[in-house]
Amino acid sequence: MARLYWLLTILLTPLVWLYTLWKLWRRPAYRDRWRERFGWIPRRSGRRPIWVHAVSVGESMAALPLLRALRERYPEQPLVVTSTTPTGAATIRRHLGREVTNFYLPYDIPGAVGRFLRRQDPCAGIFLETEIWPNLYRVARRRQIPMALLNARLSASSQRGYGRFRGLFAPLLRDLPIAAQTDRDAAAFARLGAERVAVLGQIKTDLPDPQAARAAGQAWHLQLGGRPLWVFASTHVGEEALALGVLKELWADFPDLLLVLIPRHPERGDAVCAEIRAAGCPCRRRSRAETPQVGERAIFLIDTLGEVLDFYAAADVVTIGGSFVAVGGHNPIEAAILGRAPIFGPHMDNFAAVAEALVAARAAFPVAGAQDLRTQIAALLREPQLRAEAGERAASWLRSQRGALATTLEWLAREQVLPVPAAIRPAATGGPMPAADGRDRPPEAGADSQN
């Protein structure tokens, strides 16, 4: 089946080009560095980099502790981080700047992945969460680049999708080291054919305490007049309308309540603002440096990147987006880091284990829909002690989960994925052996027309 997939992706390459042109037209953010998606990146010079892939914002935030640990352990080793979305790339640039080199992940077509791997020739590849690309993994294996999947998880929908093509994925997963988040995830990967699976927890729990976000949160609380703040973060289509309906009911009892809406995709800002105004509410947009005046009944729309933690720190009540529509929710750990017990809806499939653990610790509030959401927010606003105690339980639960990063780094060494600091792993068969300074096989020249 792998050969059939390889052939199909070659035949479909013209359609990938057409899809790219359409996306460049529809979503201007994708115009930046679009050639990278076809593997047209600079050739490396010097040492072979350690390569980490994080799809979007959530995965990029989860990757930060890992990337900082890799920088500490391998200070002379280049780090390359690939992203899939512009928001993911922006997150990496914002937090790490020039500490890493950022590219977009190439499409899983033979020419693109071959070109990317020839030009960078990483000494190791580490993918996060649910990223399994047959052509890329196949070429990496052929080039003797060790790969691993960290923080691995499989939602119910992903299990069904991969399960339909088990014949394609089982050979890839059989020898792939996989560090699963939970026993449930490990069992799901095993059903797909994975054999080298360990349960190591979630490395995002090792994010350092965000002191800058706490300071920013205090500043926002003062700037907004000390009003009660309801932060609804990572919202998707349909959730803004739900929030506006709930807010209007809450205003009857909490007239000063300010709703802070943070769309998962900031490029939806125009559409969300239009929806807010159509509902009869003023919209103040962060991207335009607008701020609600003290006492003003306006919606504060955060259509920018990288400020979720700041507003979590300022919030009295936090609600997780993607959980009231069939998206699967987003990671509630960021709220717990800042001592906020999140509210989420019935669709938390992507983070079911974390959601269940927080609920079991009485550190989160699951609700069924809009009416339950209104009732829960009202209870939290009326009872500051309930809010504070639940937030402390969320922070305490998070502290109890720390340590996954150190365990994961040790596991990567045991699985011979990461190079040892003193000497980078031997070059591929037929290539030069690495020098003592870690400058292993030299960059390849030419051959970019090959698959």
UniProtKB/TrEMBL annotation:
Residue ranges of the TM segments: 6-25
InterPro entries from the UniProt entry: Glycos_transf_N (IPR007507), Glycos_transf_N_sf (IPR038107), Kdotransferase (IPR039901)
Any one GO cellular component localisation term in the record: plasma membrane
Entry's Gene Ontology molecular function annotations: Kdo transferase activity
GO biological process terms, semicolon-separated: lipid A biosynthetic process; lipopolysaccharide core region biosynthetic process
Residues annotated as site: Transition state stabilizer: 129, 204
Region spans: Disordered: 424-451
3-deoxy-D-manno-octulosonic-acid transferase N-terminal domain span: 33-206
Protein's cellular compartments: Cell membrane
Catalytic activity: lipid IVA (E. coli) + CMP-3-deoxy-beta-D-manno-octulosonate = alpha-Kdo-(2->6)-lipid IVA (E. coli) + CMP + H(+)
EC code(s) of this entry: 2.4.99.12
Keywords on record: Cell membrane, Lipopolysaccharide biosynthesis, Membrane, Transferase, Transmembrane, Transmembrane helix
Catalytic residues as annotated in Swiss-Prot or TrEMBL: 59 (proton acceptor)
UniProt similarity note: Belongs to the glycosyltransferase group 1 family.
Function of the protein: Involved in lipopolysaccharide (LPS) biosynthesis. Catalyzes the transfer of 3-deoxy-D-manno-octulosonate (Kdo) residue(s) from CMP-Kdo to lipid IV(A), the tetraacyldisaccharide-1,4'-bisphosphate precursor of lipid A.
Protein name per Swiss-Prot or TrEMBL: 3-deoxy-D-manno-octulosonic acid transferase
